[in-house]
Amino acid sequence: MLNQVVIVGRLVQEPTVEKTESGKERSFVTLAVPRSYKNAEGEYETDFVDCVLWGGVASNTAEYCKKGDLVGIKGKVETNTYENADGEKKKSTQIVAEKVTFLSTAKEKESDNEKSDDDLDM
């Protein structure tokens, strides 16, 4: 059996790192992934995929990525069950990242904007 996922999307919030009680670094991020087809109203919908990053992957992503950056995540799907405050059983599904690839960063966007401004001055 194989549990492997590759997903590409944009970060919907700034990645931040927290430390667990055992001292491990962890980051929770959500990727916005637009669907490649239109719904009945003729609009593209977007899926929001929760991911958890650990250790160096978490710290590097928080250091180099910002909200809106395009990233690729390779990992595995993990589903957990828990009981909410009302005693109802709930499920949560997330991707546990093994690798994050930075596809575009805010720094690249800034340099693209600077190039565009320079082109206007000519």
Give a structural overview.
The longest helix is centred in the last third of the chain and has 16 residues, at 106-121. 21% of the residues lie in helices and 51% in strands. It has one domain (5-121): Beta Barrel (OB fold (Dihydrolipoamide Acetyltransferase, E2P)). Mean pLDDT is 89; it is low at 116-122. The protein is of the alpha+beta class. A five-stranded mixed beta barrel has the order 1-3-4-6-5.
Biggest β-sheet: strands ordered side by side in the sheet: 1-3-4-6-5
- CATH class equals Mainly Beta
What is the assembly state of the chains in this entry?
single chain
- Broad shape: globular
CATH fold name: OB fold (Dihydrolipoamide Acetyltransferase, E2P)
* Number of helices, counting only DSSP H or I runs of 4 residues or more: 2
Q: CATH H-level name... which superfamily?
A: Nucleic acid-binding proteins
Q: What is the domain tally?
A: 1
Radius of gyration: 18 Å
Helix % is 10-25%
Under the CATH scheme, the architecture is: Beta Barrel
Strand/helix succession: EEEEHEEH
Q: How much of the sequence is in beta strands?
A: over 45%
Q: What's the total number of strands?
A: 6
Structural class: alpha+beta
Compute the average pLDDT. Answer: 89
**Which blocks of ≥5 consecutive residues have pLDDT under 50?**
116-122
